[in-house]
Amino acid sequence: MTAVVWAGGMRFVGKGASGHEVSMDAAAPLGADSGARPVETLLCALGGCTGMDVVSILRKMKNEPRSFRIEIEDERATEYPKVLRKIRLTYIAAGAIPEENLRKAIDLSLAKYCPIANTLAGVAEIRYEARVDAS
To answer: Of 59, 41, 70, which Cα lies nearest the Cα of 97?
Structure first.
């Protein structure tokens, strides 16, 4: 079970079955800016979910990256509830990885394995770009 507990002000602390905590807060003047914003946390969860898939799939292809990161940009509606409309993921891998393998791993993650991406895909348009730095 996951629980989210109010910690005073506008700060909330979430704790999942793993026992690890996630701190969230609002920006000043509403909050104390002591944690990530909830939507930032959602986008980080998306990056972590698809990132774990991609690295796992690349390892199975014998193409483990030397380094790997995902940059995430979002576009939200202008009116409340300001839902996510578009999400752009930029996957950047370093190492001797064929770009086609990186793209295949990303496609599998986004279409089949990542529950967060598949949930958000019902609401927001998700697009990606893939880059390999072979140096």
So the answer is: 59
Q: φ, ψ for residue 102 (rounded to 5)?
A: -60, -45
The residue to which tokens 């880059």 are assigned: 131
Nearest Cα to 55, choosing from 94, 112, 21? 94
pLDDT tens, position by position, 13-22: 999 999 999 9
pLDDT in tens, 44-97: 999 999 999 999 999 999 999 999 999 999 999 999 999 999 999 999 999 999
- The residue extents of the domains of the chain are 1-36, 38-133
Q: Alpha-carbon distance 1 to 23, whole Å?
A: 17
Q: Under CATH, domain 38-133 is a member of which superfamily?
A: K homology (KH) domain (3.30.300.20)
